[in-house]
Amino acid sequence: MKPTQSLLITGGTGSFGTKMLQYLIKLPLDQCPGRIVVLSRDEEKQFSQRCNFPDQRIKYIIGDIRDSKTCISAMEGIDIVMHAAALKQVPTGESFPLEIVKTNVLGTNNLVEAAEICGVKKFIILSTDKAVYPINVYGMSKALAEKIIVAAAGKNFAKGKGTIYSVVRYGNIIGSRGSVIPLFVKQIKEKKELTVTDASMTRFLFAKSQAIALVLHVVESAKQGRIYVKKSPACTIDTLIKALELHYALRIKRRQIGIRPGEKIHETLITAEENMRAKEEKCAFDNTPVTTIRSYFECEIVPDIDVISRYAKAFLPANSDFTSKDTKLLNPKETLSLLKEGYSL
Ligand SMILES: NC(=O)c1ccc[n+]([C@@H]2O[C@H](COP(=O)([O-])OP(=O)(O)OC[C@H]3O[C@@H](n4cnc5c(N)ncnc54)[C@H](OP(=O)(O)O)[C@@H]3O)[C@@H](O)[C@H]2O)c1
Description:
The chain is an alpha/beta fold. The protein is built from 13 helices and 16 strands. The chain has a single domain, classed as Rossmann fold (3-Layer(aba) Sandwich). Strand 2, helix 2 and strand 3 form a beta-alpha-beta unit. The structure holds NADP nicotinamide-adenine-dinucleotide phosphate.
């Protein structure tokens, strides 16, 4: 990004937004956007962020993405949008589905309409593995949000101009707000037993720094309507606990509480159908592979000669979805070193 550009981060006070701001303001002046707008609702979080990052380039707007007028005024003069605002607690969604729809689905639509009105150049939404074969309200809302983005991309693809829309999809960010790692660490520090849903459950593990690299890669190389995914390793909850036992040199007591409403045993990052439209490219930041899933409209217009063989490959094996049980499963030592990279234990 350049100092002549303006960036809007919706949900800029959340786990992702905070890490992104921290990264951007440390960049050399000629690589950081000259204006970074944070849009979120809670003044307290904005106040503490303002204190943590006293930087004239960051502007704060209190507002709710459910309000279309707020979205338009936040987007005035903006070149790039990173849309991170969301309600993301799975159990909350099961109890208050309409609230999740209002923020994650209708809020995303408001932002897309605002991007069209304000002539935004690139719009990136953060999505989740829970949007793939969704079984909970949060996942369903993010699946619909992805569809809103891809539909907007389809319209501009047909016109050959307008905002470029892309999706970045990843699994669990290590140590993000409300996730299991901070909960386990708190329980260990308070000498309580760990509340375990199901020890055999697997989850993708993704460091915040990897999320930042992936989003910045997409800012540089976004193509209309594509979904960008990083194939990550995973671990079981049992392995995660063993990793924490290694770190704290303790044998930790567990209490089985059973799977929570809306939870899956294993997650999927890429479906077999998406795999047929997927290509690997190199991340511009760390040269690691990034999977990019092309949209139906791109595949129709730019047919891929490999598509038939990929179709065969996708459906011949019993399971060609990319899931958290089939990816590389980390052992406790590997899990611990990834945890240390992404979270202060
Ligand atoms: N964390 C993960 O493991 C993970 C994994 C995959 C994808 N993602 C996706 O990544 C994005 C960012 O996640 P995160 O971990 O940074 O979430 P987070 O820490 O919970 O932050 C969410 C942000 O959204 C804001 N927000 C919520 N509702 C809003 C609304 N109606 N209007 C404006 N702002 C609103 C919150 O601030 P206020 O409450 O002050 O409004 C906060 O700044 C989300 O879209 C999530 O779905 C996260």
